[in-house]
User: Fold this.
Amino acid sequence: MSYEIAVVPGDGIGQEVTPAALEVLSALPVEFTFREARAGDHVAEETGDPLPAETYELAASTDATLFGAAGERAADVILPLREAVGSFVNVRPARAYPGVDALRPETDLVFLRENTEGVYAGHESRLTDDVSTLTRVVTGSASRQLAAFACEYVADGDHDGFTIAHKANVMRETDGRFLETVREVADERGVDTDDVLMDAFATQVCLDPTAFDVVVCPNLAGDVLSDLAAGLVGGLGMLPSANVGTERGLFEPVHGSAPDIAGEGVANPVAAILSAAMLVEFLGHEDAGERVRTAVEGVLADGPRTPDLGGDASTTGLTDAVVDRL
Ligand code: GGG
Assistant:
């Protein structure tokens, strides 16, 4: 069986780390047909539209999508692409690897981020010259779907339960509903939960990341707190992600387009390669995903490493070392 994969490198270093992930996928004993499609700021400059309809349709019809990075037009690119694959949760593991100089080497967390609503629902307006508004949307149905996924995730992965990060003491109606619904679903399924105010979480996770394991968050909180966790494990180049839907998924590094280093050939491809590992696991090839992770672990431990990790390897140098190990 050959899987059809939409490949959308996007902007900036997405153009460099996505080929790295493809090289790794091509080294696996799984058959893929890659179908590349365009999106991003550079496409908007040429055509006025950052996300051509054919790219959206490709993501909506292939087995999975590999995405690189979005730039200034992230809201018009990555949010609709997540919708195209029907994703309701963004899984973001934040783990420190031996060999990487991490602020908190004991970190091993997974964020399960709500992926369809919150402040990312897109209801923003400029009302007057002085006033802009944003409507935050939280539904019981999206919160329930996320919670059900979280319950299955902790059961499959042998976790003790999960932590709900929220700000229900201030956003009483929206985060109140989120907290109440997620807790209710977990109770129904016999899954242990605790909860933490998201601002307190930001401090506590820096002081002691081992106090947390699986963290379930509203959309924006998941985006921000996982970037914070990237700072604990060696930087944004280390965090992969899976946007999971019921039938398909979109896999992307957590980092953005990094215009400061784009084009220099030194971007860290680890987040993109680990995202590719999550893609093959999503397709049911757990062994292949594990092989990729083991190869990456070996390279991070022994080198070569890219400059963000204190080394002097290029993107292709690190990628070739992973492929050699595979
Ligand atoms: N590959 C991830 C990416 O391009 N991130 C840019 C960004 O702004 N993302 C917002 C989000 O993840 O919701």
Notes: The CA atoms of residues 113 and 217 lie 5 Å apart.
